[in-house]
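Saturday, quiet lab. Running sequence design on the structure tokens for the scaffold JK sent over.
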């Protein structure tokens, strides 16, 4: 049995939704590459309501094929860093040669310093740590898309 202290009154949220700036969506196309189906589905659930055109792939090789078949521009590659067969860094390099204006946002469950220390990511690469909140992902995606 677990006993919890009785508290009178209404609980206050730690962070009010008013404290967070509204996130602007867009109509850009985002290719989400993630080997975990649940993460791909979560990203689609988070970003879909913002108006983005979402494509997804389970692997780097599938992402390359998706890019070949997709006729219009892809504005952002949102990719896991570590995946079987072809990791996100290799995928970004391969796509970057063919699509030099493609922006890239890496995501990983590994700590960003560990990724940088092991030369997985180049210094200054756009990165979001998993797990992320919906608001944090939406803000980071918009930030990367709006970057020069």
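Result came back. Writing it out in full:
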């Amino acid at each position: 049995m677990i006993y919890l202290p009785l508290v009178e009154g209404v609980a206050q949220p730690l962070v009010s939704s008013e404290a967070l700036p509204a996130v602007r969506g867009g109509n850009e196309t985002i290719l989400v590459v993630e080997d975990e189906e649940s993460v791909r589905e979560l990203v689609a659930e988070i970003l879909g309501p913002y108006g983005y055109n979402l494509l997804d792939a389970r692997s780097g090789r599938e992402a390359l094929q998706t890019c070949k078949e997709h006729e219009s521009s892809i504005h952002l590659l949102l990719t896991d860093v570590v995946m079987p067969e072809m990791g996100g860094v290799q995928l970004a390099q391969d796509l970057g040669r063919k699509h030099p204006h493609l922006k890239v946002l890496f995501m990983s469950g590994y700590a960003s310093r560990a990724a940088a220390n092991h030369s997985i990511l180049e210094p200054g690469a756009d990165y979001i740590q998993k797990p992320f909140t919906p608001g944090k992902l939406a803000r980071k995606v918009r930030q990367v898309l709006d970057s020069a």
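Notes for JK: The longest strand covers residues 103-108. The chain has one domain: 25-146. Ask whether to fix the surface positions before the next round.
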